[in-house]
Amino acid sequence: MKIFKYPQFHLYLLTLNFLNRKYELIPKNCDERCINATIINRAYYSAYLLCVLWLEDVKRFKPLKSWDFGENEKPISEYKQVRNALYNYNKKKIGSNLTKLFNLRRKADYNPFSEITPKEVNDAIDYMKNIFNDLKFE
Description:
Blueprint: H1 7-20, H2 22-25, H3 32-58, H4 78-88, H5 92-110, H6 118-134
Protein name: HEPN domain-containing protein
């Protein structure tokens, strides 16, 4: 599979571009947290969407929508279903990296007054790169 033809790969490249140009991209009246949160968010979604593509293409797995659950079933978010599926298909390292990225993204997106350290940004990029390197479409 030629991954470069998929939008997930272009989002991956865009995220790396954000990282490389982050000081140019910080808006006036904003601190570094603005771009750091965006980088973490984009790193998560590019990796998440690649995992969804892999699960659909290789394993024929597609997460259920909330309305697909039975009346007496507690819905599980699509994000959680994807992470669980990775673990179930013995992609534990990828599942772990996606979980770590998910937690960083939640902090970046939902705790706007929390500091985002350079280490957290670098960790997010590393997790994303590892997922892109480790998932094989065969």
